[in-house]
Amino acid sequence: MRTGKRGVTTAAVAVVCAVTVLAAPGTAFADPGPSPSPSSGAPAAAPGKDLEAVRKKLDALYRAAAAATEEYNAAEEKAEQQNARIVELAKKIVKGQEKLDGLKDRAGAAARSQYRTGGLPDGAKLVLSDDPEDFLDGTGRVLQGQRATKGLLGELTRAQEDLETFAADASARFKELEANRKAKARARKKVEQQIAAAEKLESELEKEEKERLARLEKEAQARAQTAWLDSGILEDLDAGVTERGRKAVEYATAQIGKPYQWGAEGPSSYDCSGLTSQAWVAAGQAIPRTSQQQWKQLRHVDIKDMRPGDLIIYFDDASHVGMYVGDGSMVHAPRPGRSITLAGAGSMPILGVVRPDTERTPGQ
């Protein structure tokens, strides 16, 4: 690898400058819950049935968008890690080239020194020397110099190999980053298509139909929450809260009323996992960005042991998350077109509960 210092430095700067990833929005949405029964009144039966079909269709579209959003968020998180690694490698390449240039300068100086003192065999130098003792001392210094030169050449070889390794690693990381960008683009397109289809469907409804659709959603959620509460779950819930949990809840609830925006992490808008991850960052605890990684990486706890600050993961694909705030309620960012709000913790199908912190509750 015969790249000059200026060339490698320029290449490394180019590496840093090239590390750009498109930022865009993304995450998960809420399922309104069980389907309500059709109205028993004859005149309202047909419209009610039609709206119920619309509600289910919208739910399917937003759920599909949720799954695609999680793909996007995961790709974005991975891209950020790849960016950081490439920048780190670029810095190593620059330092490695500087070290290699310095070693080459030292090796050149050693070679020139040997050339100036070389020529005659040692026997001839001894005969011609005015002071044999000085000659022998000089010979010892020469031997030390030869050993030092040998060590220098070994260090030079290692530096060259390190530089080549860094360059190869950076190249591989660039290929991974490019593949990841394409995955992000595909996920983004799927999200936008599903949301556009849902918005088109809603735009075709009359004002009165939209109002009735909203009531159907609330009724479905209320029925699901009632069924959850009727199971007696609240009787066994531990209401204790840690200091970090309290701070996370305070942050999340302070965002109530702000709009949902897929891929957003605040401060003006959030998606569901953007809200929960940033709430815990505010509490001093970094957690995974996506609801699926929160489910995979954080400690699982039984629902009966749930406490404020814990995260409730919804649906079989872990595509939605909310934060438990106590009294059977959670705060979450529902879906596009909705704002951050309080809702019943059991208003959607619960996959499980995870706990970001390990702090013990007061009194334990």
Summary tags:
364 residues, alpha+beta, 6-stranded antiparallel beta sheet, 9 helices, 62% helix, elongated
Poorly predicted regions: 1-49, 119-129, 139-143
Structural class: alpha+beta
Provide the gyration radius in Å. Answer: 33 Å
Through-space gap between termini: 62 Å
**What's the arrangement of strands in the largest beta sheet?**
1-6-2-3-4-5
Average pLDDT over all residues: 73
Order of helices and strands: HHHHHHHHHEEEEEE
Write the layout of secondary structure elements.
Blueprint: H1 5-18, H2 42-117, H3 122-128, H4 132-203, H5 207-230, H6 233-236, H7 243-254, H8 272-282, H9 291-297, E1 299-301, E2 311-314, E3 320-326, E4 329-332, E5 341-344, E6 350-355
Antiparallel strand pairs: 1-6, 2-3, 2-6, 3-4, 4-5
Helix pairs in contact: 1-2, 2-4, 2-5, 3-4, 7-8
